[in-house]
Amino acid sequence: MEYICIPFFVNNITGDFMNEITNVITRTLIVLIIIFISFKLMGKKQVSQMSMFDYITGITIGSIVADISLDIDKNLIAGLVSLLIYCITDILVSILSLKSVNLRNFFNSKEVPLIINGKINRENMSKNKITINILQTEARLMGYFDLDEINNAILEPNGMISFEPKDKEKPATKKDMGIKSNNKGLVYNLIIDGKILKDNLEHAKKTEKWLKHELKVLGKKLEDILLLTIDGEEKINFYTK
């Protein structure tokens, strides 16, 4: 009897093992197909371009994928439904963000000036948990070893910091050639997708009345403007839809 039971026992273990392997392969392929289709619909974004919402969603989706792929005791249908909910929510948020500036700012946040015309904005640094050491480190990584070399620094929505050097520090040859040049200063977005950005209008020390007058001079309607900016020299650039 022992000689008969041992092969049966071995065959039983081998059969269970193969069933598990087949189950894992099947579940993984199903999840992979759904993830591929979902990410195609989400659009092409590099990690550095992801918003905080995209980042959180991506981490959660990765956790769900690993869970339902490897844990065969978990309900596959329930896992797929949860996965689809996260993917669809991310797609809807992306679509709504394209149509609404307010939602875009809510989910993606806005650019925050950390240095303005050579002066450090401590209030904005404190709000965004940016210490002076972090600012110095980021500046050094961009090749600026002294903050006195920086004219403007902006914290971008993706968490990176952009730097504009002072005119005398720029690698251009205007100073060497004796050509007088001034910094254009920060460029403010005043209109995006037909919506007036009141905060930026205030930072640029302009009013809605002034902006509407400028649109009238340009012969453009507010709803036709995709992007309108103004720099420190009060030069206006705009792009229509």
Based on the model shown, name its key terms:
CRO Repressor; 15% strand; 4-stranded antiparallel beta sheet; 3 domains; 8 strands; 8 helices; 52% helix; alpha+beta
Q: Tell me what portion of residues adopts beta-strand conformation.
A: 5-15%
- Order of strands side by side in the largest beta sheet? 2-1-3-4
Morphology: elongated
Largest sheet: 4 strands, antiparallel
| Order of SSEs | HHHHEEHHEEEEHHEE
Assembly state of the chains shown? single chain
Helix percentage range: 40-55%
The domain tally reads 3
Which runs of at least 5 residues are low in confidence (pLDDT < 50)?
none
Radius of gyration: 27 Å
- Mean pLDDT equals 79
User: Structural class of the secondary structure composition?
Assistant: alpha+beta
Distance from N terminus to C terminus (CA atoms, Å) equals 84 Å
Number of helices: 8
Describe the protein's architecture and organization.
The protein is an alpha+beta fold and 241 residues long. The chain has three domains: 2-105, no CATH class; 110-186, CRO Repressor (2-Layer Sandwich), CATH 3.30.240.20; 187-241, 2-Layer Sandwich (CRO Repressor), CATH 3.30.240.20. The chain has helices at 2-42, 52-70, 76-99, 101-108, 122-127, 132-141, 198-203, 208-218; strands at residues 112-116, 119-120, 150-155, 161-165, 188-192, 195-196, 225-230, 236-240. It has a four-stranded antiparallel sheet. The protein has a four-stranded antiparallel sheet with strand order 6-5-7-8. The radius of gyration is 27 Å and the shape is elongated. The N and C termini lie far apart (84 Å). The model has no long low-confidence stretch (mean pLDDT 79).
